[in-house]
Design a protein that fits this description.
By secondary structure, the protein is of the alpha+beta class. The protein folds into two domains: 134 residues, Diaminopimelate Epimerase, Chain A, domain 1 (Roll), CATH 3.10.310.10; 160 residues, Diaminopimelate Epimerase, Chain A, domain 1, CATH 3.10.310. Helices cover 19% and strands 41% of the residues. An eight-stranded mixed barrel has the order 1-2-3-4-6-7-8-18. Strand 2, helix 1 and strand 3 form a beta-alpha-beta unit. InterPro entries: Phenazine_PhzF-like. This is PhzF family phenazine biosynthesis protein. Belongs to the PhzF family.
């Protein structure tokens, strides 16, 4: 790229994802035309925003698809995440065109984890959110010891429940350590311990990213209504108000463990409450022949800010 062709500025939009209320949910910065930006500039912009993720939209490599979408945390590029896909679909779906073409009702994003399909959600003809299908099948393991989970969350080891499954790594495109906490009150008291996260990262670091922890609690009376929190201090995300990829992985895992061989389950994950940014993530899991075949995530979005970044 020469200095004559490099962009002097890039437009951005920020949206609040998994909410219908502005200044709630999970913040996302979307650069809907990132042509001409270098990898270094994309990372610098994501770091400047400081949100859990920012997305950069490029023309698709395959013209049958809508766009290539690259996702950056404040520290690194990642292969997939839930709220960046929902929010990016919301932004692009509200545009008249995407790289010279009308967006349509189904958008297909090329990402490092694979092809992500997003269907727009509308109310009165207006785009209000999106449903995405996760790009990879669930992977489970290795298990993670309860003492490590508890130390990372500043909790006592007995706060970690094994009544349904052991703490373990789960992924549908991005890995998380996932553990059930005995009740919502205990979950709400959790606080990330960076020193413990560094120790956990040395022992359990996944290939795709640093050690991140997704905790949840639910009752026997309402097993498909879940409260959750996610900590990723090693990615400069002390706490995330909505984590779609972890929610999808947890939902798939829980449905895989029920005895029914064929079942469709709708799950609601409430997150961000302790941060004052309440989020509602809808997950749909289809299990056929004892195997989880499809996992989708749904959520509403609200536009928050827009402007130009000087380069």
């Amino acid at each position: 790229m020469t200095s004559d062709t490099a962009p002097k500025s890039v437009a951005y939009v920020t949206v609040d994802v998994f909410t219908d209320e502005r200044f709630a949910g999970n913040q996302l910065a979307v650069m809907s035309d990132a042509r001409g930006l270098s990898d270094r500039q994309m990372q610098a912009i994501a770091t400047e925003f400081g949100y859990s993720e920012a997305t950069f939209v490029l023309p698709p490599r395959d013209p049958a698809n809508t766009a290539e979408v690259r996702i950056f945390t404040p520290t690194t590029e990642i292969p997939f995440a839930g709220h960046p896909n929902v929010g990016t679909a919301f932004v692009l779906g509200g545009q008249k065109e995407i790289f010279g073409r009308a967006p349509g009702e189904i958008l297909r994003f090329e990402e490092k984890a694979g092809l992500v399909e997003a269907t727009l959600l509308r109310e009165g003809g207006v785009v209000v959110g999106a449903t995405i299908v996760v790009p990879r099948s669930l992977t489970v393991g290795p298990e993670i010891d309860a003492d490590t989970i508890a130390a990372c969350a500043s909790l006592a080891p007995e706060a970690v429940s094994r009544r349904v499954h052991a703490p373990t790594r789960l992924s549908v495109g991005l890995p998380f350590a996932v553990a059930e906490i005995k009740d919502v009150a205990t979950l709400s008291s959790a606080q990330p311990n960076v020193t413990a996260f560094q120790a956990a990262n040395a022992r359990y670091k996944p290939e795709e990213d640093s050690f991140s922890l997704f905790l949840y609690a639910r009752s026997a009376e309402a097993p498909w209504q879940i409260r959750a929190r996610m900590f990723a201090p090693l990615d400069n995300v002390n706490e995330d108000p909505a984590t779609g990829s972890a929610s999808a992985a947890l939902s798939a895992h829980l449905v895989s463990l029920v005895p029914e061989q064929d079942i469709d389950v709708e799950i609601i994950i409430e997150q961000g409450v302790e941060m004052g940014r309440r989020s509602l993530i809808g997950a749909h899991v289809r299990k056929q022949g004892g195997v989880v075949r499809k996992v989708s995530l749904s959520g509403q979005c609200v536009s928050a800010m827009r402007g130009l970044i000087d380069l």
